[in-house]
nitrogenase (uncultured Sporomusa sp), 251 residues
Amino acid sequence: MKKIAIYGKGGIGKSTTVSNVSAAIACLGFKVMQVGCDPKADSTRNLTGGQSIPTVLDVLRQKGDATLTDLIVTGACGVLCVEAGGPVPGVGCAGRGIITAFEKLAELNAFDQYKPDIVLYDVLGDVVCGGFAMPIRGGYADEVCIVTSGEMMSLYAAANITQAVKSFGKRGYASLRGLILNAKNVDNEQGLVSQAAAELDTRILYQLPRDPLVQQAEAQGKTVVEAFPDSAMAACYQSLATLLLQSEQAL
């Protein structure tokens, strides 16, 4: 089982990227589990017809306990969808919510029961506090990828995430695989991200172009891979999926 945490600033297109990669990997015949680690709980919406699914925290609040069938929903292409969820607005810590969700999935032996070939964690990277760093430092992920654009705040978040990964990496936890450039068509975008990658001692793993099909697919509650499988954009997600399936040593 391979486990990859994909981080990025809110609004950068991280969840769109993760859900399309999940669908692309599933289309290759692998069993995929996607775990949304954003309190908005919208990571898997493009895999579930645009509908929200019950979050781990909501189920625990409502029922006091949970079974795996309460928490895991099978979405498009057979992707196993999980949303950690967040606290009631104004009460509690979103990071602590992620910890609670991860502990419950571990308690229920989710991975042993479902046996996914690959697990993708979709993690908000604006603040890399204890909870949001859980996939890195808790041994949950083997690798980390960071979705960014050439926008200043996106690159700032990427630098913070990189620092956290390298700090925990010294203890044998997840390693940084590289940056995924999700183009916003800002001036000299590739140059800006290439410079940032060099300064962070990493690389641009893949560059995703800006394409209106992404928004058109999302309007249908679908991934591009599902809605427009023969498109050039779907091919990009499929290429990124294949790249992530490869081992670091194979690149």
